Amino acid sequence: MAHSFSPALVPAHGVGSRGDLPLPFTALVVSALAALLISFVAISTLWREPRLRASDGILLPAAVAAVLDSRWVRVVARLLAAVLTVWTLVALLLGPDSARNPVPHVVYVWLWVGLAFASMLLGPVWRVVNPIRALHAGLLRLARVSPDLAALPYRWGLWPAAVGLGTFTWVELVAEDNTSLGFLRVLISGFIALSLLAAAVFGRAWFEQGDPFEVWSRLLGLLSPLGRRDDGRWVLRTPLHGVNSLRGQRGLVPTVSVMLGGTAYDGFSANLSWATFVQTSSVPSSLLKTATLLAFFAVVAATIWLASAVSVRLAGEPLRRSFAFVSDIAPSLIPIAGGYLVAHYWSLWVYQGQLAWVLLTDPLGTGADLLGTAGLTPDDALIQPTLVATIQAVSIVVGHLLGVLAAHERAITVLERRAAVIGQVPLMVVMIIYTLGGLTILFAP
């Protein structure tokens, strides 16, 4: 989350410290690594064949499925999203350029963090409520042209989404004055214009694969317990089923590297030693932060590719096979990214998500109370230090355990079983490094 909000309004990410934990830091790390190793040995022994099938899942009651499929539910959701969009644009264009303006909270808290949490709970919700997608569809209807209109075929895969997510991460974590209205006006207007232009050229395929927020929502939505089995019926399923349904796509590795690396950098940048180094360095802080953020992206991409390269060689496959294998394994990073998101942004979302209502009730800064929420006091019951520290630790460990399971399922699907077990050792090492790094960033002094 951007750190340029008023200190009086924004709690620190890490309200928990290792002193808040029910267990000492060393015991937590040892327990987490032991859980990963034991899980790896257990699944290598007991999970001998691919188990995740598209037909799996517990059928939802017909009434619940009818609500989920209801056209009116989607219409209401889109209308609410449209109202919030217009409300936010009014505050952007006419509101005060101060901490009383709700736009930074809507963009950096609700859109970024809230969308991630909603997607992990309900699935790819942004595809349903995306106001720019709705605007594009409305313009096509007004022009009386086919909704499938496209000037050029789309061939870029997820690469534009990776660049867009990386850019937004830079805006959130590095850019100066990123909460000023002038900056946000340029950012938002530029994004809307670019999105409409891309949609005009590539059609609806742009939103499916190129739009950073739709891709962000879709990938994290794979972790949702809600899903459809192969016959189209709604079911409750494990996060592994959603992740396993994703096959290698062009640009998937850089996209998940940005997702995981950006959140890791956010936690790292809150470290006091790093902040002191940035302030005392002769290198301009923005340049130093940008280079470090890019390094985090690159480290995630490099480690997962290196692990894949070693894996295919241990499995007796030619090295060129690693490029396909890394794309096969990349979805296993999504649970880890989801765990990091919950760990890093839980307290921010719980507190700032409530505070946004206080600001939205007065979008023009005139002292109005249009929503009746001016007197709302954010409840801090869910951001008590010990609770937050526990949520952080559990989120990281569970995310990594799911990552191990997802990688194992994919490996035994695409490789011969014995070779798959041996080939997973480098991936396991990477998972351990990620776990140790994540816990250290959060809880070490």
TrEMBL record:
Question: Coiled coil: which residue ranges?
Answer: none
For this protein, the parts annotated as crossing the membrane are 25-47, 79-95, 107-126, 156-174, 186-207, 291-312, 324-346, 387-407, 419-444
Q: Which domain of life is it from?
A: Bacteria
What keywords is this UniProt entry annotated with?
Membrane, Transmembrane, Transmembrane helix
Protein name from the UniProt record: Fenitrothion hydrolase
Organism name: Terrabacter terrigena
